[in-house]
Amino acid sequence: MPDCNCNALISIVIPVYGVEAYLPACIDSVRNQTYKNLQIILVDDESPDKCPQICDDYARKDDRIIVIHQKNKGVSGARNTGINSATGDFIMFVDSDDELYSDAVEILLNDVEEYGADIVWAPQKSGSGSCEEGKYIVYQEDDALLLSLNGTYNINAVWGKLFRRSFIKNILFEIGKNINEDGFFMFQCYMRKPMMVQHNVPVYKYNIRDNSCSRQRFSDKYLSMLYFCERKKELIATDYPQYIEYAYNMEVRTTLQFLDVLCSSTDKKHKKIQNQCVKVIRDLYKYHKPINSHHKKLAWIVSHGLYPLYKVAVRLKYHR
To answer: Which of 69, 137, 211, 318 is least surrounded, with the fewest CB atoms within 10 Å of its CB?
Structure first.
C-alpha cells in the first residue's frame, strides 16, 4: 500500500449511547490508526451507563478527542452534532460498538488522494463487491444513485466510507427516524453525482449484537423504512423521472423487508399498513429485481395473496 503524504485532518464522528462494554475497543481502534492527524468527536447522547465517564477519561488521555455531552436526540441527532462540530477536510462515521482496522483511515485517504474522490467506500468484507479483492471501481455521475436504488451491498450505510466534508455540506440526518436514516443520508449524497471509489478491502469491523435492531421484534420505529422509501421515490419522480422504474424496484424491496419484520407483530393496528404493503407488492411486482432468492420467493408469496400464511409460519418458527 502506498504511503499517504498528505496532512489532511480527518474528523471521525462516533455517536455514543448504551455501549459501555464496547466503547473502549471502538475508541482504541480509532486512536491507534496508522494515520495520526485525526479529530475524534465522541457525542454522548445522554447515555445512561458509564459511557459519559469513559468518553471523558479518554479525552484526558488524547488531545485529539473532543467530547460533547448532549440531551438525547437519537443516533441521527448525535451524528448531526458531530457533523456540525467537525473541522476536518474529511469525515468518517463509526458506530460506538464497532471498530476500525488499524490502517483504515490511511487506506481510504490514499484512495481519495489518488482518484480525487468525493466519497471512498470500502465494503464490510473483502471481496463483497462486484470486483476482485483489492481492486477498485470508480463511479461517476448517476452511477452511485442507481446502485443505491438497486440495493447494492452496503452502499446505503454510512460506515466504511470517507466523505469529503465540503461535498456533504448541508446534508444532515433526519432526527426522530432511526431505521434507514443512514440510507436516506447516503441517497442525498448520491443525488449530488459524486465521484465515488469502491475499494474492496476490509477497513471496518461491523459487530452484530443480540439486541441490534435487525434482531428485535417489530415496533412502530420500523415505519420509518416506508417513510424514507416514499421520500426517495418523491425525489426521483421530481429530479430524476427517467429512473422511476428503479424507484419502483426500491419500493418493492423495502416493502418486502418491512413485511418480513412485521411478521413478529400480532397487533391489529398494523393490519391497515400490512394491507397497503401487500397492495404495493401486487401493483409493482413487474418492476421487482430480487436481490436474493428469499426476496424472489417472498414477492411471489405476497403477490399471490399468501402473506397471512407466511406471517403465521414465520411467527411460529421465530417468535413464539
So the answer is: 211
Q: What is the pLDDT of residues 155-192, one digit of tens each?
A: 899 998 999 999 999 999 999 988 999 999 999 999 99
Could you report the per-residue pLDDT of 126-161, keeping only the tens digit for each?
334 445 666 788 999 999 999 999 988 788 999 989
Residues 6+ apart with CB under 8 A from 98: 22, 26, 159, 204, 205, 206, 207
Q: What is the pTM of this model?
A: 0.91
CA pair distance 44, 32, nearest whole angstrom: 21
Compute and round to an integer the Cα radius of gyration of the chain.
Answer: 20
Mean pLDDT of 313-319: 82
Fold of 10-205: Spore Coat Polysaccharide Biosynthesis Protein SpsA; Chain A (3.90.550)
All three cell numbers of 284, joined, read 409493482
CA separation (Å) from 164 to 15, 75, 137, 209?
A: 19, 21, 18, 30
